[in-house]
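Protein in question quoted in full.
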Amino acid sequence: MSILARMADPTGGDRRSQRERMLAGDPYDATDAEIQKESRRAIALTERYNRTSAGDLEERARILRELFGSVAEGVEIRAPFHCDLGYQIHIGARTFVNFNLVALDVARITIGDDVQIGPNVQLVTATHPVDPEPRRAKIEGCKPIAIGNNVWLGAGVIVCPGVSIGENTVIGAGAVVVRDQPANVVAVGNPARIVRRL
């Protein structure tokens, strides 16, 4: 298909909705009205969450149940918190999230039980084409992120699209995680590399 044809129909004639394409992990038009409506819903809910008193645990829990795909008991997320859609996020029991988590959840983000997430962490499932034409046409992609039980993500960690992190693993502050990390290791740096087995 020529560049001009791809720009006229960047999805190559696929008849699924852009939301269906996004949920399948295929390239999709990020300006699609249905996706934008869902994004506005998530923004409104996160704004409400971020304005809610830290002492109003019942209201905060209610907002998270409305926003997320699933959230277990004992989860604490300190405001501010930001996400794209919300319903693609699934969080296990007793997980603690410090200030300023950014979760770009156009693909599924699964966070296990007893996870510790430091301040200013970014969980990024969204990708963009390297070629300029489809990028200009607002075509995006996405790959899921999975974080195992009892993982600790230090302050400022960035987890890139498609990454899985095994249980008990520690990712050091400021690390950029571009590939899967196994269970029971400490990984640091950019890109994150294993420096110790637990």
Remarks:
- The chain has one domain: 15-197.
- The two ends are 50 Å apart (CA to CA).
- Residues 15-197 form a domain with the UDP N-Acetylglucosamine Acyltransferase; domain 1 fold (CATH 2.160.10.10).
